[in-house]
Description:
TIM Barrel, six-stranded parallel sheet, two-stranded parallel ribbon, 2 domains, alpha/beta
Amino acid sequence: MVEGRLKRAGFRVLQRAGVIAVSELLARGVPILAYHGVTEAAASPLSNVRRLHIPKELFEEHLKFLNSRWCPVLLSTVSEAMERGRLPPRRSVVVTIDDGYRNVLTVAMPLLKCFGVPATMFVLTGAGRERRMWIDQLEAMIEATSVPLLQWQERTFPLLSITAKAGAIRALTPLFGQLGARRETALEELRTLLGTPSERPNPDRDLLTPAEIRGLRDAGLEIGSHAEEHEPLTDRPLEAMRSALARSRQVLERDLGAGRYALAYPYGAWNAQLARVVEEAGFCCAVTTDPGLNRPGVDRFGLKRLLVGADDNIPRLRACLSGLRQFLKPIAAGLSV
């Protein structure tokens, strides 16, 4: 959080100096913003460890800015324009939301409707989509446990304080991320070691149900696929990729009807082969997490996106939209900018 404050201060300096305004004038291409959730919860070391859910008040500032200075359009609008060999009008911007957390229903959607900003949400379509994703299960278990010490794979994690629990989450997350098919069993083992803690409902961790997704679609939110499960598609053999993508599209058509559906690659993991499989599966386009603006000639199945997090104030958002932030990143490597 200290690093986030330093970065916010740095971009405020760039804004006052006029650097961001110049970069906005020079920018070319369509920015696609990637949000993950909007929270009303009070900030704490455990409530938003990955800093992906942005505070409600900040999201409102973002929408006010986008509505006054940009032209928000749906991802399908950009895709249709690209199919015809052109981009939408200059100053177009796309808002996307990954994963399908319940706080999209409870917090984000009312604000999107209030400011008239269209958006596209990518949801998981697999059998376990009504549960929490594994990373949210892990965070919730550690937050709720009263066990003072965890022994896991020859490592010891003290859990007596909020700070210690946050450190355990940060250490365990990459370990569980490498488990693949063994992860569900490992989570059950972890739950037992933590004393089977009782996890409370939480819109920042719970996923939307199919009925809630339909309701959001009916209210104007565009829906796309985030694949069946939140696992890299690139780890699968070619035929497994094909069948998984076909099933995901079929679920959307069954639940929501025929339409133009986009895909967001889980973890942003993609390659040229996967992009062609996505196209063959009938998706209209696909978005990555590769940063940058989408200029003429960009592959519709490798669209760039700009990740937006809880530390992104308006100067940082402006720098992101103009491409300045991506330009500065290699220059500022190792610096607090």
